[in-house]
Design a protein that fits this description.
This protein is mostly beta strands and 892 residues long. It is 10% helix and 54% strand. β8 and β9 (225-245) form a beta hairpin. It is globular, with a radius of gyration of 28 Å. The termini are far apart. 50% of the residues are buried.
Length: 892
Amino acid sequence: MKLRKTALSASIVFALSIAGNVAAQTAPASSSQEAKDLDTVVVTGIRGAQERSLDTKRDAQSHIEVVTAEDVGKLPAHNVADTLQRLPGVSISSSSANEGGFDENDRVSLRGTSPSLTQTLVNGHTIGSADWFILSQTETVGRSVSYSLLPSEIVSQAVVNKTSQAKFVEGGAAGSVNVITRKPLDFANQISAEGSIGAVYSDLPGTTKPQVSGLFNYKNDANSFGFMAQAFYQERELRRDGQEIVGGFSTIAPDAPVVATNPDLAGVQYPNLPGSAYFTQTRERMGGLIELQAKPSDDLTLGLSAFYSDMDAKNYNRNYMLWTGNFVPNQAPLPGYVVQNGTLVKADYAAAPNAPGYGIYDMISRPESAAKTGYTTFDAAWDINESFSLKTQVGYTKGQGETPTQNIAEVVTGRSGGGWEVRGTDNTVNWYLNNPAGPTTDGFGTWGIQYYDVIDKETWITSDATWFSNNGVLSSVDFGVRYADHTREVNSPFGSDPGDIAGALAGTTPGYYPGDFGTGLGGSFPGPGVWYFTQSALEQAVKNNSTVRKDGARHNYGSEFNINEENTALYAQANFSGDKWSGNAGLRYVDISQDIQFYRGLGGDATITPDVSSLFGNFVIERHNNKHDRVLPSVNFRYNFADDLILRLAASQTMTLPDYSALAGAVSLSNLTHTGSAGNPELEPIISTNFDASLEWYFTERGLLAASLFSMDLDNYVRYATETRDYVNDQNGMVEAYEVTLPVNSDGKVRGVELTYEQPIAEYFGISANYTYADGEADVPAGSDATDALVGTSKNTYNLSAFFENDRFNARIAYTYRSSFYHGMLRANEYFQDDFGTLSASFGYKATDWLSISLDALNLNDPTLSYFVADGHPQAFYNNGRQYYLNFRFKY
């Protein structure tokens, strides 16, 4: 620790000493003036947008990457994460917890770290996070923002900050993404209007859904008042074909009955609950952005901004599974079974007399799942005189994820035997279940209405000032203060008791898996033609036959928590410039108070009087108060060897708080596997010591060749450990032992390199490529067999793209690849996502000055997203199909 601090301090002193010994030069424009100039520049076309992005990157005082509005319009991109994925050092993922991957990118991370270590801002301020999927709402998914709520239409520019400055809001250990929206006074014309009408075709469900957006902007002749309104409505249907080994791989105990007849099976592992998972969903994303700007005088600008995005995400998941845990420990397989490397990779089972069910089938309907986010801000920017400017902002943001209802049918089925064959981590498991066609049930359980409401909100006030110097190498000084009050809470106050739901479902007409189910996954397993209760029938049965308990009997205290954080920050940053060089150095002081409250289950402990009780057990209220304060130094240095050759050096310390759910995570248990997850309120903040060096050669207009080296040392990095705890099994009321995963502090590091190449070819063509290598490692206790991988670290990530554009036509094709990475823990198992790549393309035609037509094609290579656990066993496989977006864009 001392060595890191000393190295960083020396870097800052070195930068300051250079500043004091170089001849004085004319001070550059202020950062606020640069932002104004940036916002007023209008670029059109792929080539113009690319040129503007490179100009912005070249002129920046720190290491950044930029995507402009025209990039968003021309790339195959339909949310901000899609837009950012082509940049060097940026990785994307399409899931946030353990729900598996979908067809839309959802999280963004930088330089081989998890999304939780990348901060997402909108216009420089925070935005409340919200998720539609129940695991993302209740499990450890972090402080990252769901990009599924940020459509690309709102973007004027997206800036990725790879190095820190004292004036940046703390929270991104690896860096930050700042999404910049349009402002009314930046438009060229007094009245401007844009709109698009289109549709998206998803080939796996075979459906077409509407996509509509519009923008209107007005400003007066004096350019002293402006109003802008944007609105969007986007609907689409998803179908995901999957295979999941829900229980992972279990071990046959030495005293299991089958060992008496087959002693070679003692200690052997087998796949627990391999299943055919058929997921469907309708997503409706709607919202808008309103911006007001007023300039009462040339020196004063006032702004009011309001954004809202709401996504209804009704979904239905069916998982038809081989219930191996119900018979493998007790029944001998047929002759010919195969054991390899301690795993029963191939086995067949005949129906045994009085045998238990060989299959189990879950159907889970969430008809009201939703996520929404929004913010309101008021800004005042005052150029007091030539030497001093002041900007103040007051804001409020709130994100909310809801699962009001879970309608669940659980069916024991199939008494005629079954079997499987494991074929490695790259291939699905071949399995079968001898079961009659049609709705056959035996041992039937249903329940419904388990309400979850997750709120993420913040109120803040900032005041930022700049003093401009006209003498010496000191060009300006930035200083300011920020106060924020943030709350994250998970609520689950009621649920329902089941009635005769089975009787209500017994006579309903079933639905069936599609005939082409699983064709994109390969292998042989049930799917085509498998029956299920329809979503509407299940919803109606639960509604009419279950009793909602709002008397506290089904208050799920174990899933609830509340965290309040008060954050005060002060900073000062000196900006320098000289002949061929510039830089900045500063300090940011952060003081944070945390109030953490959650409920701890007592299990079988009868010596403590519970504070609250429900059918889920007895609980006591746990409350922890933490206080963290830190001085965070940063320095950035830039040297121009020539106008087209730039060296950048940077060093900083950043602080990122642990995930909310890691501090007070809901206790999530699986009664089938007796595993679960929980939180740890004693986690310390992650302190990252960062170094960055880059060399950029702008060898021609729209041309760039760049190389960057980066290093992050992560003190108090959050990794996972397991321990055994007692909990009440809510199905039988018995106190039982569960192997629970919880987060702990450790240390980690990331070292890497980024390479970037952009090249225009003749007048109408261009290519770009980038590659990122990231080597991450976490410390693990001596003697532990836990992985030393960092969450989210792909060693190799690259992007390739090429385009053509003339006055009428444009076309672009892009391929993105990332290698396998550690995803986190899944029921006490270390969980990885395998390497994958996606191919996308876009085509455009400018019919008139006011009408253009575009066709975007995503996931053209129809990728399979594969997951595996650390011991080399497969975990899940998902296929989402391709998507085609046709849009007619109008502009006035």
